[in-house]
Each structure stands twice: as structure tokens, then as C-alpha cells.
Design goal:
- 2 copies of one chain form a homodimer.
- By secondary structure, chain A is α/β, with parallel strands linked by helices.
- Chain A is about 30% helix and about 25% strand.
- Chain A contains 8 helices and 13 strands.
- In chain A, strand 7, helix 6 and strand 8 form a beta-alpha-beta unit.
- In chain A, helix 3 crosses helix 4 and helix 6 packs parallel to helix 7.
- At the A-B interface, helix 1, helix 4, strand 5, helix 5 and strand 6 of A face helix 1, helix 4, strand 5, helix 5 and strand 6 of B.
Chain lengths: ~260, ~260
């Protein structure tokens, strides 16, 4: 028996976002690995062990889970959101690439989930309704100048921008610097959306503008969407505004960025 | 009574990807609107009417669904994948923006789903494990030179690229032209993934290289992922290879694109 490893996306946290495929993978596992707070969201199951680890320990967690699965066990590694977007899927692949040959014989399965940008966008309308870029602001694993290069490219070409990991205790200045960077290319009035903990009791969604965005509270769990020249608000009496990026690009925008 | 409209993401098509939130929204609706083949996937329910429409009729479908909801009814509009990614959420917002004031009083809810790029990526590993761009290749709603501008920006800055709507009968040459465009910036050996109908009986996943990608069959329902300099394959005996983009950017890549 060669063992099984499922890399499971939990979505934003609430059960309403957990797909049947993810629920089945969790139920099948004899051992769960993941960031402690993600594991804490899951109901306890008899005969299922839990192996919580800290944030920023992804490589060690991936290797531990692979080693456990290689003993012939059915193991699940959980990610918030989708495992393929700044989460555990790449960490698992990286470990398989450098690990023992036996890890390549494992039955490895990736189970997609609702990633934060989709959940936040759905709460507010359709800010990602046109072309967009997805960028982690963490410079733990890539140099900061490369992040600035990508922010420039995205803003100049008229992509909306979804930013993961905007702020952490170890990275206090990067988010404000990133906002200044995109302001070189975009008007100060462009809508910026902050979303956190979608579907959970502490959910927080805020809409501001690029010029005011640096004043908005943000942390590792916040997802930020910077709109485009074309992103618009629809005011609604007694309801929060809708924010959307139209599917059609008007001629004026083409001329502005071509 | 003001009426309700849910814009619901079905995911890639198989029930295993349908979130509980989406299932509940479908069950609550008295009328379902959507592209015919998407509606055909859903089980019939007593007392629930169906209003199929053709592809490329998104604006009319959105207006019809809003008009129906404004009669005080509970209506759902379905999208394949996620409604916020090149799908019905933006079309609904566009119609609310120009429609009667009463449409702004509706209880409108967007229900996220597993969009094609996440489902395809999960089938193969973690090709979107680092920064990436998401682009529709359809030039029905934006001019082709803008698409080329965005392909240049994405490839030059080292983003992986997820391409929606690569080919249609009315757009026979665009996909090959787009591949030629990114080849100006990327080596011919870069992995390119084709995915279609994930989770359905006719699922097809293929991995090729940038130089051979134009030979691969593709249609409107195909999702294409173009990797980066760093995207790698892990060969596995008796299993399909894994494809992933590492979380870490090596110094050589930074120098190549900075």
C-alpha cells in the first residue's frame, strides 16, 4: 500500500463554502495536517489524528505529511481558500521534487477551494469581472523589487490586482509602498476593496479609494482588490454599494494604456 | 416584497464542486436563468421554472432575470465556474447600473464557485502556485491590441498566465497569435497546460510546451495555463507528471526579468 495525500482547500472558513469533494477528502483522512487555526475550524472525528503547525512552516509541514502518507496512511493537508493559490499545493510539490523517490508513488490529490479573492469579490459585486492579476505581497520568498516590477506591469496594462498577504508583523511597510507604487499609474479615485474572514462572525468588507487605502486596517488574512480605470460603484438606497469592473473596455481606456 | 436575485457559480460542472451555499441558492429559486447547457446539468425541481438562453446573450439574460426578480420573485442566474470571473456577475452589475431604480432595491447575492483555472490547476499540481494573471482571449468586448499589450506585460514580468475563452468559431486565429506573442518573451520549453470539463466524463487535461501549444485542441470551454521560467514538471512512474510553479523565486529569474 502506497499511501494517499489529499491537499484540501477549505474555502474562506464557513462550511457553506466547503465543497462536497473537500468534505469527503477530510472524512477519508486518518491524519490532518495544517496551520493550527485552520484545523480548529474542523469538527473532531474519532480515529483521526491532528498535526497542527505554525504559519511559515509550510515546507516542514509538507514533508511531515508526505512522510506520514508514505507509511501507507490516508493523510490530508488543509489550506484556507484554495491550496493552489499561495498555499500548500506548491509546498507539497516542492517537497516531492526533492524528497525520496517513494513520495512520487503516492496517490496525491489536490482539492480546489473558494480562494479569498473570489469570496471577497462575490461579497461586493464583480470587481474581478475583467482581466486581473494575482500577487502575493510577501517578500519572504521573492525580492521586493520584483514585486514592484509586477505591480507596475499590472497597473500599466490595466489589470485589476488581487493582493494576498498584504501585511504581517514582519512586513510593516510593504503594503503602503505597494499602494504608492500603483498610484504612479492609476488615478487616486480608483476603488480599492478590503475583505477579511468572509462568511465568519468577524467578517469585514470595506470599500475605499486608492488615495485612502493606506489608512485601512489590513493583516495577513486580508485580501485587497485594486480596481482599474473602469471599476465602478453602484450606489443603492439602504444597501451597500456594488463594485464591478465591466466586461467591455471603452475606447478611452484603450488609448490611455496602449 | 422586493425580490431576490442570486448569481450562482456552479463550479466546473460535477456536483462534487458545488458548494453548499450554491446548492441552497439553487433550491431557493423559483426561476433559473442561464446558458442552456449549464441549466441542463441541474436536476429538475417541482415549481421551479427554467429560462435557458444562448451563449453571448449575457446582457439580455441579465436584464430578463432582473426584471423577473423585480416582480417579487426569487430568481437565480447560474454561471459555470465562478460568476465573478468572465461570467454573469459583471453582466448583472452592468444591467443594474443602467436599469430602473427598482433593480437597486433588489436583494442581490453573488455565490462564488470553483473557477476553471483552480479546477485545472488542482488536476495537475500547482501551476498557479506563484503570482499569475488571468486574461480572457475573447476580443468581442475589447480590442485585440489591448490583449497583446496585456500578454506582453504578464510574460515580461514573470507572471503565470491563465487564459479563458482561448478559441471560438468566430475567433479562429487569436489563440495561435497569443501564443506567438508570449513566445517573444518566454523560452519554447515553458510548460503549457490545457484543461477542459474537469470532473465530467469528457474531462481532458494535457501538458505540452509553449512551442507545441498551438497544435493542441482547444475551444471556448478550454482553460489554458502558460507557466513561467520557473514552472517545473515532476515525472512519476506510472502516474501523470505533476506541474508546479515554486513559491520561491531564484536570483537568476529575478535578474532575467528585472
Amino acid at each position: 500500500m502506497s499511501g494517499r495525500l489529499a491537499v484540501v482547500g477549505l474555502g474562506p472558513g464557513d462550511e457553506r463554502y466547503l465543497t462536497p469533494e473537500a468534505a469527503a477528502a477530510l472524512a477519508d483522512a486518518k491524519a490532518l495536517y495544517g496551520y493550527g487555526p485552520y484545523l480548529d475550524r474542523l469538527p473532531a472525528r474519532a480515529g483521526q489524528s491532528r498535526h497542527p503547525s505554525d504559519n511559515r512552516e509550510e515546507a516542514a509541514r509538507a514533508a511531515d505529511a508526505l512522510r506520514h502518507a508514505a507509511q501507507g496512511e490516508s493523510v490530508a493537508v488543509v489550506s484556507g481558500g484554495d491550496p493552489g493559490v499561495f498555499a500548500m499545493a506548491a509546498a507539497i510539490c516542492e517537497q516531492i521534487a526533492v524528497g525520496p523517490q517513494a513520495w512520487r508513488a503516492l496517490d496525491v490529490m489536490f482539492v480546489p477551494g473558494i480562494t479569498a479573492m473570489l469570496a471577497v469579490a462575490a461579497r461586493i459585486g464583480a470587481p474581478l469581472g475583467h482581466d486581473f492579476c494575482v500577487l502575493s505581497l510577501s517578500d519572504n520568498l521573492k525580492p521586493w523589487p520584483l514585486i514592484e516590477r509586477r505591480l507596475d506591469a499590472a497597473a500599466q496594462a490595466g489589470f485589476a490586482i488581487a493582493l494576498y498577504n498584504p501585511v504581517s508583523r514582519a512586513r510593516p511597510w510593504q503594503f503602503a509602498t505597494a499602494l504608492e507604487r500603483v498610484r504612479r499609474h492609476l488615478p487616486p479615485t480608483i476603488p480599492v476593496i478590503f475583505g477579511r474572514a468572509v462568511g465568519r462572525p468577524d467578517e469585514r468588507i470595506a470599500v475605499t479609494t486608492l488615495e485612502n487605502a493606506a489608512n485601512e486596517p489590513a493583516d495577513m488574512a486580508t485580501l485587497v482588490i485594486v480596481g482599474t480605470h473602469e471599476t465602478r460603484l453602484i450606489e443603492r438606497p439602504g444597501r451597500s454599494p456594488l463594485v464591478y469592473t465591466p466586461r467591455t473596455v471603452p475606447r478611452a481606456m484603450v488609448e490611455a494604456i496602449a
